[in-house]
Fold this protein.
Amino acid sequence: MPESTTPAATASAPSRVTVCRDCCCGTVKVPGDHRAQTARLRSAVPVRVSECLDVCEQANVIVVQPSAEARRAGARPVWLGLVNDSEATEDVIAWVSAGGPGAAPMPEILDLYAFDPGAAGRRPGRG
């Protein structure tokens, strides 16, 4: 079951973040302070923690979900991979705080992290 943030955080950010934390993302297989990253995200934006999202080669994976209103207008989730440093985490926070997909332009720097999960190497027997 995904975990969520406080209602106050939800009210201040119309979109939310899903953070993969399972077999590769958030483990010693990927360098970095994963607890600090999750805590920093939770301190600023609504966060759900997910089990494996099946794109391990992109670890750490963060999916930025549009708000319901933006989704109704056609916005779709944005998948970000290799989000392994604090600067990238801060860029994600800034975008989500500004409204996220469909409500605020994605910072150009996040283009370097964006990927298509359908093209990201589905493993045999999965998804």
Notes: The first helix runs from residue 7 to 12. The mean pLDDT is 86.
